[in-house]
Amino acid sequence: MRYSFLIFSLFVLFGCSPSAPLQTSVVHCDSLVAVTFNDTTTLYFKIISDGEACLTWDATEGKKYNTPGRYQHKGRLVVPSQITIDNKVYKVTSIADNALFQQRSLTELYISDGIRHIGNRAISGCDKLTMLRLPETLETIGDEAIARCKQLVKVSLPDGIKQMGKYAMYDCKRLREVEIPASMTVVPEGLFRGCFSLMDVRLHNKITTIEERAFSNCENMTKIRIPNSVTEIKPEIFDGCHSLTDVRLPKGLNYIPEACFHDCHSLKNFDLSNIEIIHPEAFAHCNTIKELALHEGLKRIGHSAFTACAGIEEVRIPLSVEYVGENAFGNCKNLKNVYLLRTKPIEIGDETAFPGEPCNINIPKGSVDSYQFTAKWKKFNYREILVGKK
pTM to 2 decimals? Predict the structure, then answer.
């Protein structure tokens, strides 16, 4: 009994595939081959070379892959590593676009080693899928390949994966943890967008780029460390991550992209010491930011960069800042003091860059005329202070 339990535990832990299904019949149908396993499960294959085959979708009546009359798989399905046709063995090396699209009754899917590519939307929309075993030979995963598999809790991505397509795991709402394989250098666009339950993301130190919306709307993610190897991050990567509190940015990163932390209601801990440009809406609606440390070296603050950040009470604009965009600090209802160190005004998008009364614009002594007679700077409530003092 203990031995059986151990075997079962190892099976669950390592995601080992069950025994390969027994091929029982073959039927040729136009350009496809229908192969039946164990007299119960029929899969459709296309011969793509002299010794290779591709699992594809049932082209019933020549309709599209999402036709209502399409073959539906139920329960467990094993994609074999090879098939035999007319006494010739063909290795199964890929799963075609849409091959298992919206198989809503499929609960377990085991893909055998030997398969190198999973196509666009190949497993997308499998609502009841709770177990997915990916092969160690896998190299590429297409756009939306595993998207909308809303019951998946964990997926182990094999170490050999070199490329994943856009939104490959989009809207897998119960997915809780994932580790990006060391073979990947780019986190693709929208990879985990809408993965509501995702909390633990491990990024290795060979990643160089994180594409748009890679983690947007991961509402339960609380913290993330972006390795120093990352030199480029695209807009909106954490947009809508409502529980995100702590972010460690790469030391070499000198900008915050557009809407990067938009709507991150819980964000508190981040370091802008190396940042030169804060792009539009970068921190918009981040209500819990209270202490905003802008460092010397910062040059531009884009429009609406900190709009509606209700927790900010004061802001010190470094001497290095050359431009503050319109509405940059607009709707910051608790912002009472803005400290400007220049005797001559910096360029601003318009008069919405900073709040009006009761917010004080604190400027160096003797410079009030310079501000009040400069276009776009006339409406503010000025208070002259000694530079460096509040």
Answer: 0.89
